[in-house]
Design brief:
Layout lengths: L1 E8 L3 H12 L2 E5 L2 E6 L2 H12 L7 E6 L2 H6 L18
Antiparallel strand pairs: 1-3, 1-4, 2-3
């Protein structure tokens, strides 16, 4: 299982809601257009990426940044507090 930070900049409200709902199936929203998601394989990420590509416009942007276990452990918010642990399992 690999964790990613998924973020987007999408101008159309309908598309933005659809992308948000889809990403919520893979993880949790941490900010308005930022999610921490988990996929079971590189193929799973590619399938999600291809699905979202079919929805978004040319000027839209969706990005996935890998987040390793050690990086997640070191992550903290502006107050210096450790961010919440990512769930051990996500049921979609």
């Amino acid at each position: 299982m690999q964790t990613y930070v998924a973020c987007f900049d999408i101008s159309d409200d309908r598309i933005r809601r659809s992308v948000s709902r889809r990403l919520e199936h893979f993880g949790c929203r941490v900010q308005r257009s930022v999610f921490e998601i988990s996929v079971d394989s590189p193929k799973g990420l590619e399938e999600l990426r291809q699905e979202l590509l079919g929805w978004i416009e040319d000027e839209d942007d969706v990005r996935f940044y890998p987040l390793c276990r050690e990086c997640r452990r070191k992550s903290q918010n502006a107050q210096g507090m450790r961010v919440a642990a990512f769930p051990a399992a996500i049921i979609a």
